[in-house]
Amino acid sequence: MTNDDPKRPFYKNREWIRSVIIGEAVIFGGLIALWGVLCAIDAFIFGGMLFYLHWYRYFILILFLPFFLPVYIEAFFLQIVFNIRGEEMMLYTIPMFASLVLWWIFLGVVLGSVIYRVRLNRQRKKEREAMSKKTYKSCQSCAMPMKHDPEKGGTEADGTKSAIYCSYCYKDGKFTDDFTTAGQMQEFCKQKLVEMKFPKIVAWLFTRSIPRLKRWKQG
Question: In the chain, where are the structural domains located?
């Protein structure tokens, strides 16, 4: 099992840890950058007067709401519920700051997990596309060499050629037989080869690889 295997515990998955670090950097870096941009706009365009406008203060409160949510909640309870104001609020500065940092870390973990999931889905999509483009020398259902197939492969539901199964086994996106096990396919192919005057030992050699083919590995 590789270090980036999604089945590993999250704290041992290096790819997840890297994604969380990116998430934390985005959260903390984004906060600093956003505050810097707002301060620069106020200083160089409005001459530092924006922060004296009530509507701008409310705008800032709403803009930073997702990032400062714990502080808003704690301030609400302290001032409205417990009627703690003024200098008494200073006593709660450190706990409020600690909860704020923990909240930012939590947001970074959530964002990092989302980034990891997106990257993982992209990786799986690329793997599926690579598998679909992979060509096989023999049919992955009956083991017949694809070069001996007169139609050079079966067909998918949309009419495109299949690079995995031959035309005898696969048509219009479905298998042409009702076999559920590799053993059934082996017996069928052996009988066909014997009917074509192949010795039984040769029929056995030609069909012994069937259980290892893609169709039967997938169950």
Answer: 10-133, 146-217
State the pLDDT at residue 199.
Answer: 93
Question: Measured on CA atoms in the order 85, 86, 91, 95, is the torsion positive or negative?
Answer: positive
Q: Which residues contact 63 (CB under 8 A, 6 or more apart)?
A: 34
**Confidence at residue 135, expressed as pLDDT on a 0 to 100 scale:** 74
Query: pLDDT digit string (tens) for 170-218?
Result: 999 899 999 999 999 999 999 999 999 999 999 999 999 999 998 998 7
pLDDT number for residue 185: 94
pTM over 0.85: no
- For residue 31, count CB atoms less than 10 angstroms from its CB and return exposed for 0-12, middle for 13-18, buried for 19 or more: middle
* Secondary structure letter of residue 175 according to DSSP: E
Tokens 């923990």 label which residue? 102
pLDDT in tens, 71-103: 778 777 777 777 777 667 667 778 888 888 888
Q: Dmax of the chain from CA atoms? A: 100
